[in-house]
Amino acid sequence: MTDIEVTRRCSIATRNQRLAAVRAFAGFVGEHSPVRIEWSGQIRSIPFKKTDQAVVPYLEKAEIDHLLAAPDRRTEQGRRDYALLLFLYNTGARASEAVGVSRWRT
């Protein structure tokens, strides 16, 4: 892990992501190979480093207004894009949550 930070000059967040992958692999190996349980435990005992939490940015009202004004609402695609943006804004939904919404059928 030191090599990742020092030699490759990766951030602490990158180091932690790679450590998470290695720890998951070590857990898998430890479960399926009793001979490697000690090695797995050593790997899984490497602690994560603390890092600052990224501030989640948000858009100001004027920025939202500009974003909502962008789609051409005279076209079908523009109306769809406007409706989707308005839905995301009004509900606070993530894009992945919006994808999961299905069309209401009557």
Poorly predicted runs of 5 or more residues: none
Please report the distance between the alpha carbons of the first and last residues. 56 Å
The tally of domains stands at 2
Percent of residues in helices = 55-70%
Mean pLDDT: 88
Largest sheet: none
The SS-based structural class is mainly alpha
Report the sheet-strand fraction. under 5%
Q: Give the overall form.
A: elongated
Estimated radius of gyration: 23 Å
Number of strands: 0
- The H/E string reads HHHHHH
* SS field, number of helical segments: 6
Describe the 3D structure.
With 106 residues, the protein is an all-alpha fold. It folds into two domains: 2-44; 61-99, no CATH class. The chain contains six helices and no strands. It has helices at 2-6, 12-32, 37-44, 61-69, 76-91, 95-99. 1% of the residues are buried. The model has no long low-confidence stretch (mean pLDDT 88).
